[in-house]
Amino acid sequence: MTDLVIRTLDESDAHLFDAHPDPLGAREGHRRTRFRSDWKRVALRDGNVVARGAWWGGPDDSEPININWFDVAEGEEEAGAELLRTAPWQVELELNLPGGWRDEPALKAAAEARFNAARAAGYELLVERFLYRWTPDLGLPERPGRLRFGAEPDDAVFFDALRRIHSVTLDAHSLRAIEEGGLDRAAQEELDFFHWCPSPREWWQVARTPEGDLAGIHIPAHNPSGPTVGFIGVVPEHRGNGYAYDLLAECTHFLVEQGAEFVTGGTDQGNFPMAANFAKAGYPVVKERINFEAR
C-alpha cells in the first residue's frame, strides 16, 4: 500500500474535499453550514481522497469548536484515524447520521467505519442524540397556558436557574462539565454558548407559575444554521408537572413569531422525558448525532 499524504486545504485545492463519496448524506445536511477551506483536511493515497474532515466554528471564531463532517473510504479506517490524530485541533467530533441508520446495512457499515477510525485516533463515545426539525405543515404545538413567560435581562437569574436545573440533569455534555468543574462550570458553559449565538439576548425567557415561582427557562435561538430550540429546563422543585412541554411549545411559538420557517432541536437519546416532549410537540426525528470527545 502506498504512503498516505495528509493535506490541509486552501482555496486553490478546496475541490479535493468534494472528490469523495457521501453515503451518509452529509452534504445535504450541511447546505446551510459555512466551512473555511483552511479548516478542511484530506488524506490521499495515490492521489485519491480516502478520508476527509471539515472542522467548524462560528464566523468570528479563531479556532474550530468541533469537527462535524468526517468520512472514511472502505478499508481506510487507519487513514481516517491519522487524519484526526494529526490535526492541530483536538475538538469534539459530531457525526450526523440518517434516522434508522442501524437498520440499513450499507449505512451501518459506513457509520461503523467512522466510529472505528475515531476510536483509533483516541476519541471516545460521549453520547448519542436525536435531532429534530419542525416545519409549519406539522402544526404549532398547543400552548397549555399554565405558565407566565417573560424576558429577564439579568444573566445572574439564568445562571442560578441553570445551576439548579443541572443539579439533576440527564444531559451528557452538562454532566461532563459538572465532572470537570462543578455546577458553576456547567451553567457558565451554557451562558457562553447562548451569548455566542447570533440571536438577540432579549429572546431569553423565564417561566413562572401563576403564583410567581420560577418554574424554568427556555432559550429560543439562532445558531449559524438557523432557528433552534437552544435550551429547555425545569427547576427541580417543579419537575413532575410536565412543564418541559409547556416550555418547548412556547419556544416554538416564539421562534415562529420571529419569522422562523423551521425550528430544529436535539436531545440525548437517554433523556427519555425530553424525547417524549419533542414527540408530543410534533417534532419528528430527522437525524441521529453521535458525539465523540477527544482524549
TrEMBL record:
Pfam families: Acetyltransf_1. CDD domains: NAT_SF. PROSITE patterns: GNAT. Residues 163-295 form the N-acetyltransferase domain. This is GNAT family N-acetyltransferase. It comes from Streptomyces lanatus.
